[in-house]
Amino acid sequence: MKPFCPHPQADAKRRAIVHLIETVIAVDGEAPLPYYKRRLLDTLLWKYTEADGKYNTRHRSVAANGRASNAGLRHDDVFTKRELIEQLMSARPAQIPRILESAIGCVVTSDEHTKLSGFDGVHSGWERYRQAKIEYLR
To answer: Measured at the alpha carbon of residue 23, what is the angle toward residues 103 and 97, in degrees to the nearest 5?
Structure first.
């Protein structure tokens, strides 16, 4: 796996996504609108964490880092999108950038991704990795 190298357009992509998230959050209305807001936020968070590339993330597990190709690798959301969406749905505009600080992607192996999934809803963020005993590079 190549060393991390920021994508030249990553910051511009993230700024655009923040603007779109602010727009989605500002829309108010009754059901089924909250369902669609969550769906849009899910996609926007996915794009936000992949601004440098799906497998070109600053963070990766030690096992994933040793791979010669991307085969068998997964892009994991360190703080799950479910967590972040819930925070965003009740956020004021000024809180959005702080919440997005937790929108972090980490490349892991498929086996590690399965292991991490067992800790969803029980542990959050990097604590999921500690509990799953997955070493990662920062």
So the answer is: 35
